[in-house]
Amino acid sequence: MYIQMVIDDSLFKRKKEILETEINNALDTGDQQTFHKLAEKYAALMKSTT
Questions:
Q1: How far is Cα 7 from Cα 22, in angstroms, rounded to an integer?
Q2: pLDDT tens digits, residue range 16-26?
Q3: CA distance 42 to 25
């Protein structure tokens, strides 16, 4: 059980890190469409933790 929690936490952190990087890239390039799509995914990921 503990191992699964550690794995789940690691996967969550990695997904969050990837989305943050992609969101920053979209902001840097001015790609609003991609930014909004990624922001929705980020919000859903964050909501899934509550």
A1: 23
A2: 999 999 999 99
A3: 14
